Amino acid sequence: MRRSSWKIRIFIGLAIVAFAFVKKCSSKEENPYTGRVQTINMTPEQEIAIGLQSAPEMAQQHGGLYPDERLQAFVDAVGNKLVRNSMARETPYQFDFHLLADDRTINAFALPGGQCFITYALFSQLNESQLAGVLGHEIGHVIGRHSAERIAESDFWRTVTMGASVGGDMGGLVGGIGQNTLLKNGRGDELESDELGVLFMIQAGYNPEEMIKVMQILKAAAGPNRVPEFQSTHPDPENRIEKIKEAIERYRTQ
């Protein structure tokens, strides 16, 4: 009886894993803006809805919005200039740019669907062209559908882990493999967004060399004890600088 029960568990576990792979293969599509084939299990409209729903909470986590309408208008102007002069204007995404009150955390990020954020701590160290580089990078995350891709990958590995757990004691190992896969892809997202940011800067009339200075600012802010690249979802600033230089040379000659 025990042997029969064990076989049933194995069968169910394998069925769950097979379902995860079939679902992943059927969810592949080519990004019309980057040309990259991705695993996506939601529509742009769903991405927009997630971003709009999550935006207030994300702002609250960083002390709310910065209470200076003049500076917020400046951020809006730079962000909208990038959108108007790039492929971003052709997408269904609703781009909004938020200056956060957080004056300690040097950070910028984007939610699915077009909600882009920058903390005052980072904003206060940038000139206009450097701000354009940061916002262009975040627009790149949205157009690259990186959050949607990570969500789909997370759903895949969660299902595979469940199947491995049902079929035996491999759930923890499989889950760890999934985390490593997500980590690797996250670095690729950052490099792709850097490249798109360079392109958007050039198209909007900004000096893309300022993106290199942004990387230097981030490196200085991290200090000598920054996390090694292989332990971080973000590539090392020095590695990003080399890729940015390559992108500048490529897009300037087009």
UniProtKB/TrEMBL annotation:
Keyword Protease: yes
Cofactor annotation comment: Binds 1 zinc ion per subunit.
Cofactor(s) demanded: Zn(2+)
Any one GO molecular function term: metal ion binding
Annotated ranges, domain Peptidase M48: 72-247
The entry's keywords: Hydrolase, Metal-binding, Metalloprotease, Protease, Zinc
Transmembrane parts of this sequence: none
Alphabetical GO biological process terms: proteolysis involved in protein catabolic process
Protein origin, superkingdom: Bacteria
Gene Ontology CC: one annotated term: membrane
Family: Belongs to the peptidase M48 family.
Protein name as it appears in the record: M48 family metalloprotease
Species of the source: Pelagihabitans pacificus
Top-level taxonomy: Bacteria, Pseudomonadati, Bacteroidota, Flavobacteriia, Flavobacteriales
